[in-house]
């Protein structure tokens, strides 16, 4: 039998993940501290009636998410101060987006303030520090085996981050309730946003910011031309949206259409070309986020890749992660979640990622069974117990992978009655196909469970409405999910028809990946190589190389598609991403993009962003601000940007802003208006 690739145990954290283990870890290949990849024993005589033994849930550690320190501070003001204010202080005063403190507007976090002022940062790990290690609500972690509902726990990682002073401040500025209208346009028309935000209260801009990876002049024009209702319906039918040039160029990524068998057979040749399949899949995802017109579909693909998460970089991902993206996530992203979860549980990627291939009746690995309940369906507070996890793990034995394909091994399957939550079955079929179908029935059951309906509803509301979504919209989305048997389009249509969505302008902050992708989009970067590009020595095209460079930058920033190594996916709330270094690194990258330094793609020269640049500095700033962030600046914001350039509003400027246009564009791209979505 192959080595049992079980990563090191995870520590217990504030959501109750406790790293249970068998009393004798050596007996069943469970890793010890110094030996995370201990070989599993040979499979015993199948004629002996198996006695279940347990390989605990410690298969994938859940270390807390840590942001990289980031780079780039030295070139924040690399060309020195202009006029009365240094560029660093002017830029940070304008762009230090961090937390919607007290519901007023974006303000700098303590970490950011500490870089540029003498104010001390908050002590990490104390109450109110959302990224610290101490539990902030005074409770201990949930003991293993105890019903989640009997102690105070967080339902999932987003809520755990929001259980802090910062989260409480954000909640004060979120919509508190609302109603559903006949359609998105009616809801937009009848809703008057009351939240305090620096964003313009423009429903078209708001829809473009939430339902895409970043508003562009074309997207805004499309919504205004088609109308809100027609645009949403168009986005919900992505098969009818023509591929863009950036999508057609994905043919240059040779591994995207290959199956596991082809990838295995051609592994050496692909390695020689640098065409790593799992990385090309990430490259393609980035390209679609930037250039596809199927923007709502891509947003939902990203949502499901966090919700039903399989890391791109797991051992085996080079063979199987691309088809998981294609045949599970993308196939069902706007379809049925129960069908998606069933397909995922039959896919080699998930079965290998969570060690289900090693689970058999006499040595049961509960990793997949646990995550199916805790992360992919009902949630940690969904009402299940440790007994339910074990019953589910027993039921799912027999599923695995052979010759890179899904198999059901009847000889490894546990036979006998099982009961998980409200699902029960005799589970005594001799026919392997019937036994396998019982597992599908169970997966469908938990995907339609009321707790799953609420979990999906809350996660969607967190993605599209606010980090602390109102209970009213979660309740309604939960009912729509249940009434439509887990179909996603009706849930999204209900969400866009809710006043809470239209009232929540400015209540989401872009994560690092979203910020960078939105920057490419708003700058109008094109997928062709620039005339100045000089090909390297490798066999890959400029397009392929350019996408890999974006991926490398996203890895440096701490977020890239399918990048979280653990099965919980990336958090979708702002307080999980408060890193001054990451923020400044993103600003510097935005400056490089505005300057057009990445020649693998075609950039508009910064002085060409406006077709007819005004002749005075103040008017130029107004026009460029509207071009890049789609609204006009306030008088204070204009003054801050002029401070970056060191000029007065009445100063005469040429199309290059007297040589400062890149610095001005970078300042605008560091603004709260570009950080918010």
From TrEMBL:
Pfam families: DUF1800 (PF08811). Residues 38-49 have a biased composition (Pro residues). Residues 10-25 have a biased composition (Basic and acidic residues). Residues 1-84, 123-149 are annotated as: Disordered. The chain crosses the membrane at residues 90-108. Keywords: Membrane, Transmembrane, Transmembrane helix. This is Uncharacterized conserved protein, DUF1800 family. It comes from Micromonospora mirobrigensis.
